[in-house]
Amino acid sequence: MSRLDGKRILVGVTGGIAAYKSAELVRLLGKQGAEVRVVMTAAAGEFITPMTLQALSGYPVRQSLFDQAHEAAMGHIELARWADLILIAPASADFMARLAQGMADDLLTTLCLARTVPLAIAPAMNQAMWANPATQANLATLQSRGIDCWGPDAGSQACGEVGPGRMLEPEAQTELVIARLSAGPLQGVKVLLTAGPTREPIDPVRYVGNRSSGKMGFSLARALREAGADVSLVSGPVSLATPAGVKRTDVETALQMRQAVLEQVVECDIFVACAAVADYRPREVAGQKIKKQQEQLEIRLERNPDILAEVAALESPPFTVGFAAETDKPIEYAQQKRKNKRVNMVAANLVGAEQGGFERDENALTVVWEGGQQALPMSDKGELAKRLVELIVEQYEQNN
Ligand code: C5P
Fold it and tell me: Do 171 and 195 share a structural domain?
């Protein structure tokens, strides 16, 4: 059986010299059994003819939003929903900028805006254009919205320069399409996840908080979703976009987080507590802004409930995964925490000025479970989340 049998892929081609490789991409996807439709931007037509892509996909290529004949056959919204995946290859710097801005000024951007299916881009451009902070900012925006970025490769470029900016080869893109569309190991598994910090109010304008950015939790939500899980995320205040396909509940305080978790936990198979929940909250919350009259001000704090421990102590608890941010001896404390809270797995990281952890894009973890441990080396939080999900899958399957 071909690995993309029954899958529908919309390939978007934008203006760049790498567009000549889109022909091979369309051919390879078709060879794997996929039904492929091609949409080109006006600029793409300067590099490759619609006839080539029509011959390889077996369908007329669409180029304009205002094409009456095509709109009558399959409207642009219908086309956006028809696909299982939209892949823009090559994605030019201009196209990435328009996508990041949410523009809908041609057929391809409109399709991307109207879609509800996964979207991946395979950028291709001159190395300086790729390195430009504007392109990198657009990339960050796109990734934060759950759009996959495949490549680019580094090497010699059509313009004669050398560096990152070459479109990922069609063979590699085909493999990524296969991986993206195959049923993940967590298909049908419900995961509840907490992420971000909590804010414990002192008065209407001030709070006790912490430095958690929520990046690790959001990366995990995305990786779990990509592994096929049905993911519900309970998030403290963060400025991050919800990963595609993830259900999100926003909360502010630890008590609100506990409430949201307890409401949803009965239905879940796996609970991942990634949030940096404040251990204490101010005992009294002033109704009005506290004035600076006294030389010293005392705020009395009381303990917050431990959400993870509470979930692990349920009569029939889900498979539980906790985190431990430590300034020293992470493995020792993580094993202790695992036993004390009676959770299945604990992922420990070193935090502090030197080590990283909070507010950073990279992290390293040591994951412990009963009778085992594994170190996951320093890497981008997205990559790290994927590795951690692999370990969660292994341990979850052993426990079921
Ligand atoms: O005990 P400690 O706070 O170090 O444990 C951290 C782990 O417990 C994390 O997984 C965190 O999400 C979870 N936790 C919680 N509720 C709290 C405190 C921590 O769920 N009140």
Answer: no
**Tens digit of each residue's pLDDT (9 = 90 or more) over 90-148:** 999 999 999 999 999 999 999 999 998 889 999 999 999 999 999 999 998 998 787 88
Domain match, 167 and 197 both: no
| Residue range 203-214, pLDDT digits in tens | 999 999 998 999
Q: Which of 112, 159, 268, 274 is labelled catalytic?
A: 159
Q: For residues 123 and 12, give the distance between their C-alpha atoms in angstroms, rounded to a whole number.
A: 12
Same-domain check for residues 174 and 222: no
CATH number reported for the structural domain that contains residue 239 in this entry: 3.40.50.10300
Last residue of a domain, one of 181, 206, 225: 181
The best mutation among 192, 306, 339, 345 to test binding of ligand 1, ranked by most ligand atoms within 8 Å of the C-beta, falls on 306
Pocket (CB within 6 angstroms of ligand 1): 194, 254, 273-275, 277, 279, 304, 306-308, 322-324, 337
Query: Amino acid identity, residue 264?
Result: Q
Contacts of 205 (CB under 8 A, 6+ apart): 289
Give how far the C-alpha of residue 395 lies from the chain's centroid of Cα atoms, to the nearest Å: 22
20 pLDDT tier (thresholds 50, 70, 90):
very high
| Same domain (yes/no): 146, 268 | no
